[in-house]
Design the sequence.
């Protein structure tokens, strides 16, 4: 038995010798995974973190739901073909379980976490900040500044949309999952926003660190806006003036860029593909969101399909005469569209309402005129090429009068792949913040400070550029300023926020929007907190906004 | 002398083992096996020095020194005097020539076998011996049918004969012979005292399953009677008698406690397997698959059912403990066929089947859709819809997407053995055209199972499968067909598929566009399990087995969407191509020792193993092609090209020790411990230990047991143990970023964003399980059955929980919480009628499982009650998978207008229950509406045979589950009415039904909440009905074949259910809108030569 045992032991030993495995194989060293620790080691790592952060911010001008819940359901926009039910039904469709609202909420906090990660990691000790023309400390400050500006910008949208929301300023870690988030009062969050913007404006360069990134002017404009929101017009005026007085930022007053020699107006040159960026001559631009056709990272935005008219569906004698063309804006679907009030809010000579800016008619063109796209189809023998097909807007869009292919549309949103008229996206860069906005914020501050003459002067700088008649001080009131913003910044400013800031959303939307605006209630000034967020807050009740 | 021989073997023997083992590793990796064909006798030198030994003793000595085996009659050398020899370094021939030839013997050497015969003169002399006579008899089975091939021998000798085809035999026996023994594979050997009789009639009984049956238990096998854990074998009929495309279909309903759910229908149906309920909340609940002893990481559908010999399922902690870290969800052991001793047999199995959908959702017809849309929002009726309606035409999209399905399957195999080599070689072809258009699947597979004995103590073998799958072709989209507007056109004037079936709605594509895609989806797989077995010659019962398994799967996919489809037009030609390689490697060292010490039997097993899996893929998507000529072969011409790669690797190291002890087949003990280390876990939590104990008592073997004539089998089993679950992938503990590129101008700017939160102390999920079981047999096992009760608690769940969006990331995997499963399983087999011509047997099983969440995060509310996780729909004390929603309460009726108005609703709108009666519909009114996993499962098979005909009826029942009927809504894209919907009984003022709300956009919601309809998915289904016919023996003989079976099977022919959706087996949102379930009619043929 003893011999047997020893042989057993010997044999077992031998067997294990044959396949002795190194324990190191249990240690994971994935070659294809990048972590915060490994990325945020040097300037290049932080730059790529900023690129990711800017790409997240870009979603605001990229995806339909994020466009729609700031642009639609206001005084100057209503649903036409419709997308989200909320904006033409309101009532029960505006609910905590709405998918678009949930995605928007999640996206904003995803952006905040990406920013927090950069901001927190920048405090690391062993980071190599050298690179470029700046010294290490300057690089670090600039990186943190851009991340804090985007964080402020994300909280700005959260507070406008939902009111009190949880405030978090640290990178989320697996070891610190919270189930007791508390909704921080709006006032406190706005203090943080101002802190972030104030820090950022010191270090963000005047021209932006890269095409498409924030400029100092953009950050200061946001700062002015936030001061207006918290009702400190004097501070708002101070920051607006900083931007306006910066010589590198200038209003576009004459024709420039790729279509300079073709008929047009200076105002619309800024929105033509190839012209939008400061680098391309748009001296007025402060923040231009980047897209690029056929380029990795270029993506494609849904602005064009959301707002460009569905002109191809115009039907005369059962014939659909108009072809999709690049200059008509590609394949628009007109999810939402201007209200009649907005179309009629311009003086007739105002270049912002010329057919270059606001599509009110189409010319039937033959193959040469439409090249490289096919010729338009003549609807009957009484039509010939060169004839005009007019848009129709004598009756406002309403519940029973919608899905109108011949409704006028703003041409700021146009964009498509010139080689593919069925493309669903636009790759046109989006002018997101520009100097005219700063002027109008300044005017608002002046108005609030009682300086009506100053406000009129400021507004007239904008009006004169587009050949609108100057306005007198006597005419200045908050509604006039909002009308002017609407005329100047249609599709650019986040109209819902502008109206909420001035406490005019409910009143003006009811007044001017007849396809949905008639159904809003006071409750709808804030969106409901997504139910998933309330449900995940296991150990602390997260109160819903009133009315739900 | 004795001592010297030991030394001799120790020296060269050990070296041999060592070298061979090393060599094996190499050989097995390349999957090559070479059988040595050298002439052994010419290479072997013998050393013999004996004094006065019998010839038998000398031959035995030769056997000990070499691999020679001598065959001779035991009485040959009885009268030959002892010899004295001294021969060194001599060949076998020299020895034999000197030793036996002078005494009138000859010999023949066949490789290592030496057959010794008497020369004629001696034989004559022996024949002259008197005292011999001839006896005769018949050998029949219990049905009275002859058993050709059975052997009759005189017990204790090699004298015997094979029974002829009529079951008759004649045998010459010496008068001294006392007992005759008759044996046949699969039957109980029968012995009869001769007692001077001349005519014998044997009736052999089938070897009763459960007594001497040997079953695989993982890392070895055991007699059924000695098993302590809950190990269930799949009844052979389910494998052999029913046509199955995949093994899961064979298991469904046949084994208590095993739930198989069909998750996808179509040409390649998918099944999910759940053994004894759901333990894990978010980690995988899939059982571990072990094919021929090696853990298999591929899908179960890759194994060709016709190559499978046996399937065993390990259900309790003790049985599964040997697979420790992965045993928590049970283990399925699959053993493929092997060659059996005897002559070569060739068999063929062929099946041809026709498939038809069981039930298709009744969508609105063109006129119905028109009426629906006019009622809801006439403004949105487009010109093309109106034109089509006016013309009286409409498109039945569902009908265009389906077709009659066909499938054929052919398998051919050759098996048998030569001297030291057993082989089984098979090839199979499967070709399926599913019920959805263009849903095709082809598989070609071959298997080679060979085992060869290189010596008395050393064998090597392989079990290798090569297969090729082809699922090319994109099928018609059933989901899109269901929702497509019937007033849009599938074909244009030229008979081509329309690019935009609804001109005004340019987002709507043609659900049949997939038919125009160029699509390949091919994969090749090598599954090679190679092994070496060493039966140590110096310690009886000690055995070493080296298993090496390699699996490599290569997948090649490509798709091109050209300009004849909407996708292709929009992107100007779009391609996606991908190649992926997945491989896994398993190396197992298994040392086992089994020996009887009197009434004590010990069976000990030790395992040390390594298991690694690696996968990587390269893919490319491109769009913007200049033309459609070269398709995915010309991405370089495309305007945007996006390559991507993936990679992952996991490793597992395990050590296991198991001791089985039995005393006199009465008392049984199994002790098991396994230790596992897994790479996917955190640095300090990589290793886990999983122990278990099991006891068994064969009561019937006790001397004091009364009633032995009635009760033929009675065993009590009990086990307790811990199993693990590691079912998470690689890199889960690492927080990480994902690519989020940006652009500045026209330049790409590489970017990253946080995408995952990792936790570095992630570790094993552990299941603590108790099992009590009883096996019984009554009336000579005419009634057999077993009862098992179990109770499993799973702790440290690998929970993939939803977290607040405020974190910026919405899910995380944590070890947290506890679940419980308890249940009862019964199975019963009865032979109801057994006569010569007619038999009827019944086999039934039933299992009940109760599942609940015991704990989640351990956070208590102010009342000290643990907090539920509403966001994830996990509730303490409730099953893991529940429906949680507002409660459907019909429709607000005309006389309820005031009440409805308090909820902002009105008559005709959906009515949801204000459960807490606070006058408002809020989140607090959501309720648990049934569980998603069934509680009760059963299967019942009745087999009737009459002569050569057999009828088998298999019924499967599933009860206790509730699911959301996704088809019962009016989600037709708002006021536009873009989609079609199920025909329903809508409410109108004149039809005040509670079935369904009115046709109005707002009517589907109350206080902003959608009304959803949940229904029971219970069903009882006639799964298989098989009629078969075996050609009678006399005809078989005539055609010189030994098996001919013709059968017809109908599958899923009839279903009893209250579920009003498509099929109660396909209930999740995706599958319910995908390809419908199918019924099948199969014609099959089995042939054996």
Sequence:
């Amino acid at each position: 038995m003893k011999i047997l045992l020893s042989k057993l032991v010997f044999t077992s030993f031998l067997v294990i010798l044959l396949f002795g495995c190194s324990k190191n194989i249990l240690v994971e060293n994935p070659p294809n995974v990048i972590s915060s620790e490994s990325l945020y080691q040097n300037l290049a790592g932080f730059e790529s973190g900023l690129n990711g952060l800017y790409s997240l911010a870009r979603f605001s001008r990229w995806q339909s739901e994020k466009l729609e819940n700031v642009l639609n359901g206001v005084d100057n926009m209503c649903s036409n073909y419709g997308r989200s039910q909320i904006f033409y039904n309101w009532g029960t469709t505006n609910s905590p379980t709405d998918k678009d609202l949930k995605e928007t909420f999640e996206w904003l906090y995803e952006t905040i976490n990406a920013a927090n990660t950069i901001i927190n990691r920048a405090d690391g000790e062993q980071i190599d900040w050298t690179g470029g023309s700046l010294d290490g400390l300057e690089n670090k400050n600039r990186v943190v500044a851009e991340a804090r500006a985007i964080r402020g910008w994300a909280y700005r949208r959260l507070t406008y949309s939902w009111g009190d929301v949880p405030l978090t300023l640290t990178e989320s870690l697996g070891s610190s999952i919270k189930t007791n988030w508390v909704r921080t009062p709006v006032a406190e969050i706005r203090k943080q926003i101002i802190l972030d913007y104030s820090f950022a404006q010191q270090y963000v360069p005047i021209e932006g660190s890269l095409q498409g990134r924030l400029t100092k002017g953009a950050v200061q404009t946001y700062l002015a806006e936030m001061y207006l929101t918290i009702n400190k017009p004097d501070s708002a005026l101070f920051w607006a003036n900083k931007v306006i007085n910066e010589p590198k930022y200038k209003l576009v007053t004459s024709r420039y860029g790729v279509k300079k020699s073709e008929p047009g107006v200076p105002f619309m040159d800024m929105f033509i593909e190839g012209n939008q960026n400061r680098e391309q001559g748009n001296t007025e631009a402060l923040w231009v969101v980047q897209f690029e056709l056929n380029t990795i990272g270029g993506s494609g935005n849904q602005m064009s399909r959301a707002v460009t008219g569905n002109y191809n569906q115009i039907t005369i004698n059962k014939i659909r005469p108009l072809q999709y063309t690049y200059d008509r804006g590609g394949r628009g679907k007109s999810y939402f569209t201007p209200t009649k009030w907005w179309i009629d809010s311009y003086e007739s000579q105002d270049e912002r309402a010329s057919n270059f800016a606001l599509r009110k008619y189409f010319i039937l063109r033959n193959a040469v005129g439409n090249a490289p796209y096919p010729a338009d189809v003549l609807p009957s023998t009484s039509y010939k090429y060169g004839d005009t097909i007019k848009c129709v807007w004598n009756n406002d869009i309403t519940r029973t009068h919608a899905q109108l292919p011949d409704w006028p549309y703003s041409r700021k949103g146009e964009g498509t792949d010139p080689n593919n008229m069925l493309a669903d996206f636009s790759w046109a860069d989006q002018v997101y913040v520009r100097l005219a906005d700063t002027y109008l914020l300044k005017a608002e501050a002046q108005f609030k400070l009682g300086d009506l003459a100053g406000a009129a002067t400021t507004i007239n700088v904008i009006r004169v550029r587009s050949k609108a008649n100057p306005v007198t001080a006597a005419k200045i009131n908050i509604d006039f300023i909002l009308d002017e913003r609407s005329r100047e910044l249609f599709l650019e400013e986040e109209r819902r926020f502008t109206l909420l800031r001035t406490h005019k959303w409910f009143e003006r939307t009811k007044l001017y929007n007849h396809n949905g605006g008639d159904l809003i209630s006071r409750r709808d000034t804030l969106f409901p907190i997504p139910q998933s967020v309330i449900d995940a807050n296991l150990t602390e009740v997260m109160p819903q906004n009133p009315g739900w | 002398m004795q001592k010297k021989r030991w030394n001799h073997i120790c020296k060269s023997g050990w070296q041999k083992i060592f070298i061979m083992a090393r060599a094996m590793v190499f050989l097995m990796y390349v999957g090559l096996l070479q059988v040595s064909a050298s002439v052994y006798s010419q290479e072997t030198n013998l050393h013999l020095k004996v004094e006065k030994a019998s010839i038998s003793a000398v031959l035995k000595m030769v056997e000990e020194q070499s691999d020679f085996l001598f065959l001779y009659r035991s009485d040959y050398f009885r009268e030959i005097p002892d010899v004295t020899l001294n021969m060194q370094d001599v060949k076998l021939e020299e020895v034999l020539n000197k030793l036996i030839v002078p005494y009138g013997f000859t010999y023949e050497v066949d490789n290592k076998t030496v057959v010794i015969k008497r020369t004629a003169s001696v034989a004559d002399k022996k024949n002259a011996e008197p005292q011999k006579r001839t006896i005769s008899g018949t050998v029949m089975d219990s049905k009275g049918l002859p058993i050709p091939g059975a052997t009759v021998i005189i017990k204790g000798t090699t004298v015997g004969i094979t029974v002829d085809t009529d079951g008759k035999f004649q045998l010459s026996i010496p008068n001294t012979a006392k007992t005759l023994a008759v044996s046949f594979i699969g039957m109980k050997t029968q012995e009869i005292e001769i007692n001077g009789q001349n005519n014998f009639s044997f009736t052999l009984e089938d070897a009763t399953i459960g007594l001497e049956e040997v079953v695989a238990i993982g890392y070895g096998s055991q007699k059924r009677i000695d098993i302590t854990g809950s190990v269930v074998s799949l009844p052979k009929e389910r494998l052999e008698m029913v046509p199955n495309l995949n093994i899961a279909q064979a298991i469904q309903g046949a084994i208590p406690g095993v739930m198989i759910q069909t998750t996808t229908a179509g040409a390649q149906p998918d099944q999910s397997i759940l053994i004894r309920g759901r333990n894990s909340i978010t980690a995988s609940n899939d059982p571990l698959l072990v094919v021929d002893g090696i853990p298999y990481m591929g899908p179960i559908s890759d194994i060709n059912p016709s190559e499978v010999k046996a399937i065993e399922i390990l259900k309790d902690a003790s049985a599964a403990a040997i697979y420790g870290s992965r045993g928590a969800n049970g283990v399925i052991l699959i053993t493929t066929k092997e060659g059996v001793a005897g002559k070569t047999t060739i068999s063929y199995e062929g099946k041809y089947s026709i498939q038809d959908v069981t039930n298709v959702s009744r969508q609105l017809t063109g006129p119905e859709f028109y009426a629906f849309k006019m009622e809801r929002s006439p403004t949105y009726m487009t010109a093309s819809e109106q034109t089509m309606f006016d013309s009286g035409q409409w498109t039945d999209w569902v009908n265009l997407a389906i077709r009659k399905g066909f499938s054929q399957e052919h398998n051919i195999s050759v098996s048998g053995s030569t001297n030291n080599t057993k082989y089984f070689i098979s090839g199979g072809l499967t070709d399926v055209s599913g019920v959805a258009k263009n849903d095709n699947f082809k598989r070609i597979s071959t298997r080679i199972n060979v085992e060869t004995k290189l010596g008395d103590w050393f064998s090597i073998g392989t079990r290798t499968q090569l297969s090729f799958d082809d699922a090319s072709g994109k099928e018609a989209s059933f989901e899109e067909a269901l929702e497509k507007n019937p007033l849009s056109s599938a074909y244009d004037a030229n008979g081509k598929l329309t690019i935009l079936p609804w001109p005004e709605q340019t987002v709507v594509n043609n659900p049949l566009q997939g038919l125009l895609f160029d699509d390949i989806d091919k994969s090749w797989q090598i599954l090679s399990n190679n092994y070496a077995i060493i039966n140590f010659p110096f310690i009886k019962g000690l055995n070493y087995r080296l298993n090496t398994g390699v699996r490599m799967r290569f997948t090649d996919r490509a798709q091109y969407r050209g300009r004849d489809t909407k996708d292709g037009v929009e992107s100007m030609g779009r391609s996606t191509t991908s190649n992926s390689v997945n491989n896994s490697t398993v190396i197992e060292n298994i040392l086992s020792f089994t020996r009887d010490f009197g009434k004590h039997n010990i069976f000990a097993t030790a395992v040390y193993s390594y298991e690694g899996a690696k996968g990587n893929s390269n893919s490319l998507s491109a769009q913007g092609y200049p033309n459609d000529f070269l398709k995915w072969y010309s991405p370089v011409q495309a305007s945007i090209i996006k390559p991507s790669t993936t990679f992952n690797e996991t490793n597992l190291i395990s050590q296991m020790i198991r001791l089985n002890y039995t005393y006199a087949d009465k008392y049984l003990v199994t002790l098991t411990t396994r230790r596992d280390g897994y790479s996917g876990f955190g640095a300090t939590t990589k290793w886990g230990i999983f122990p278990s104990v099991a006891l068994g008592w064969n009561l019937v073997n006790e001397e004091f047991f009364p009633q032995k004539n009635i009760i033929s089998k009675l065993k009590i089993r009990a086990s307790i143990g811990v199993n693990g679950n590691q079912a998470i992938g690689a890199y889960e503990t690492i927080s990480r970023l994902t690519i989020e590129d940006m652009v500045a101008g026209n330049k790409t700017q590489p970017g990253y964003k946080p995408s995952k939160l990792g936790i570095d102390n992630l570790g094993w999920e552990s299941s603590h399980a108790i099992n009590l079981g009883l096996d019984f047999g009554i009336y000579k096992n005419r009634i057999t059955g077993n009862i098992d009760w179990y109770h499993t608690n799973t702790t440290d769940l690998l929970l993939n929980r939803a977290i607040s969006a405020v974190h910026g990331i919405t899910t995380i995997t944590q070890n947290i919480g506890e679940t419980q499963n308890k249940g009862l399983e019964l199975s019963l087999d009865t032979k109801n009628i057994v006569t010569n011509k007619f038999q009827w047997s019944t086999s039934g099983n039933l299992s009940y499982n109760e599942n609940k969440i015991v704990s989640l995060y351990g956070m208590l509310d102010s009342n000290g009650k643990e907090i539920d996780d509403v966001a994830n729909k996990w509730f303490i004390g409730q099953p893991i998978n529940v429906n949680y929603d507002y409660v459907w309460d019909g429709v607000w009726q005309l006389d309820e207008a005031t009440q409805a108005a308090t909820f902002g609703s009105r008559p005709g709108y959906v009515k949801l229950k204000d459960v807490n009666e606070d006058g408002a519909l809020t989140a607090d009114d959501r309720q648990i509406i049934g569980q998603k996993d069934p509680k009760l499962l059963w299967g019942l098979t009745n087999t009737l045979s009459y002569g050569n005909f057999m009828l088998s009826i298999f019924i499967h029942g599933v009860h206790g589950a509730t699911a959301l009927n996704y088809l019962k809504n009016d989600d037709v894209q708002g006021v536009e009415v873009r989609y079609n919907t199920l025909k329903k009984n809508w409410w109108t003022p004149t039809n005040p039904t509670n079935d369904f709300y009115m046709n109005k956009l707002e009517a589907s919601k109350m206080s902003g909440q959608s009304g959803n309809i949940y229904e029971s998915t219970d069903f009882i289904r006639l799964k298989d009905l098989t009629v078969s016919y075996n050609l009678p023996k006399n005809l078989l003989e005539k055609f010189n074949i030994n098996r001919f079976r013709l059968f017809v099977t109908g599958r899923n022919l009839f279903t009893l259910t209250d579920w009003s959706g498509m099929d109660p087996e396909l209930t999740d949102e995706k599958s319910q809108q995908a390809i419908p379930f199918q019924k099948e009619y199969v014609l099959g043929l089995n042939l054996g030569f």
